[in-house]
Each structure stands twice: as structure tokens, then as C-alpha cells.
Known about the structure:
The protein has helices spanning 3-9, 16-23, 27-35, 37-60, 69-77, 88-97, 177-187, and strands at 137-146, 152-160, 166-172, 197-200, 206-207, 210-211, 216-218. The protein is an alpha/beta fold.
Amino acid sequence: MTRFQFVADxxxxxxxxxxxxxxxxxxxxxxxxxxxADARTARQAADEQLADRIRAVHAAEPENRxxxxxxxxxxxxxxxxxxxxxxxxxxxxxxxxHRIAGIRLRRRVRTTIPExxxxxxxxxxxxxxxxxxxxxxxVGDITYLPCVDGxxxxxxxxxxxxxxxxxxxxxxxxxxxxxxxxxxxxxARPAAAWPGRSSTATTATSTPLxxxxxxxxxxx
Length: 220
């Protein structure tokens, strides 16, 4: 209950001037608040209608349950007349008031797990990720892809430092040595031969074909 509402509820029992002094509000502000009662009622009704539309957007498709305020706002404004468009701040406020929240699909997955027993290999690129010609220096990394069913896929990539193109990649439901080896083998195909050096974020020090080639720098 606001101070204005308190004064309005007790105005028939006590003097308005005295109550305004006690609750430290200005009488002019009180009268302005009372004059805007109809507008507030209309705004609250409009907010309830908008909250129902937000719930409908969330329930329309299973993937919509992950929508936050920006995506919900985009759905509400899609094809709407300029006068019917809504602000994302208003959508965010109503979602918070009605406890409508998008499902957070992202999960923290650790993709770099160093092996204490492995020997640290020096960084042959020395943090220089620029190459003057293609197929000289490569960099690689592993990331994870959360799936709707709760599982996780792992993506290993190899990128040419000169052209910035994707030279090789592999995807699997595990993060074993084969994941990185497949990406390196894909980059080593004749169409993307790599006579130079590369740096990857994998912790593996060997592949199914044997020890990691000397042209590959592996950091833990």
C-alpha cells in the first residue's frame, strides 16, 4: 500500500492535511494521484492483457519457453501496428511481476581438462595468430553445444590464421582424443594441407595415429 492509498482510505476518518503531514506527502501530489485513478485502472487492465499475450507466446511452441524479454518483445511486435507495439522494458517488468522466465538452456561445461601427468608442450605460435600466407599457421579450440534433450555435443575446430577460414572440424558426444584428431585430419586433407604450425586448446598429447605431430602445438 502506498502512502497516497493510505490517506485515501482514511480520509473520511481523519483530516487529509494532518495525514499528509504525518506520512510526509504533498496534498497537491495526493490530489494528482487521485485524479489519475481511472488512467491507472486502464493501465493495469492493459498490463493484464499484455501478460496474457506473453504467456501465450511462451506456450505457443516448446522452444519458446527459452524466450526472454527481448525475444518475447520481438514476437509481440512482429506484424503489429505501430500503435500496438510494446516496449521491451515493459515486457521485462511484466515478466518479472508475473514470474514468467525463459528456461536457461546453457549449462556450464568444462572443455579444458589438463592432465597432470602430461608434459607441457611449448606454444610454438608464441601467441602470434597472424600468418602471411594460407596453410602456414592454424589454431583450434573445443566448444560445447547444449541440446534440447539435455545432452551435450562437443565441437572441435581448426582455423587458418591467414584466411580465417574453417579448415577442419569434428563433432561428437565425447571429448576424447578422437574428437581433436578428426578435426586435425580434416584440416590435413589435400584441399587444406597444413605444412606449417598449429595451436589447439586440447589437452591430448597423442592421436589414434600415434604421438601428436611435431607441427602441432598442444596446450593444456
